[in-house]
Specification:
Length: about 230
């Protein structure tokens, strides 16, 4: 397991945002989703230690997240006043595999799946909606996705996609996927504002400024974070 000092992360050289600005200036009209992804996939990346990448971001600014490329690009275009404005769509990945705290949250979620199984049974009476998160891959596209309408199965769970990134060609909202225990990245049950589980949600929230945390709670419909059970 890498430490926080030697973990590596990909960094675009030059910045991906700069490449997209240059490409759109040459085209003279907004880039399409496929053009944005093609530029991303052909751009040069170098691997840097996380601490060095953070220092670089302090000098040149935070770059576009390649796993949320279309979303972040449209937000950058809006900041620059570029028209016409295009809908950015949802931001599917707010955390990354190389994130050590994310890795810890995944271990916590997987070690507490017995709690999720109990809550699924209880939800049949309470009406609460269990969700599971997994990694979805479609060719070169990948995203962390929440699945709803969750059912327990032998050695795992099944759930339905309720939203799909625009660059995913082989999945549609409503598709039911089977996810083994080892591929569960997080789980949550929101019972009338009481959140059980939600390890990655708590991590994302903890990284937001204090004045934005209440807004985040309203957005996800949580009024109370229930205590987490002991994890391995």
């Amino acid at each position: 397991m890498p430490t926080s000092n030697d973990a590596l992360t990909p960094v675009f050289m030059p910045a991906l945002g700069s490449l997209l600005i240059h490409a759109e200036d040459i085209k003279g009209s907004p880039l399409s989703n496929s053009e944005v992804l093609r530029i991303r996939d052909s751009a040069i990346c170098i691997m840097m230690q996380v601490s060095d990448a953070q220092k670089l971001a302090e000098t040149r600014g935070v770059d576009i997240d390649p796993e949320n490329c279309w979303h972040d690009w449209q937000n950058l275009r809006a900041e620059l006043g570029r028209t016409p404005a295009l809908p950015p769509g949802p931001r599917f990945n707010q955390l990354h595999d190389s994130d050590l705290e994310l890795q810890k949250s995944v271990r916590g979620a997987q070690s507490s799946l017995h709690e999720l199984r109990k809550l699924i049974v209880a939800s049949k009476e309470s009406g609460a909606m269990p969700l599971i998160k997994t990694r979805l891959v479609d060719g070169d596209a990948k995203a962390f996705m929440w699945l709803s309408n969750v059912h327990e199965m032998d050695g795992g769970f099944s759930g339905e996609l309720f939203e799909v990134p625009s660059n995913f060609e082989n999945y549609q909202p409503g598709d039911r996927l089977e996810v083994p225990d080892g591929s569960i990245l997080d789980w949550m049950v929101n019972d009338q504002g009481n959140l059980y589980g939600g390890y990655s949600i708590r991590l994302i929230r903890s990284r937001k400024p204090a004045d934005e945390q209440a807004q985040y709670d309203d957005y996800i419909g949580v009024t109370n974070y229930m205590p987490l059970g002991p994890s391995d």
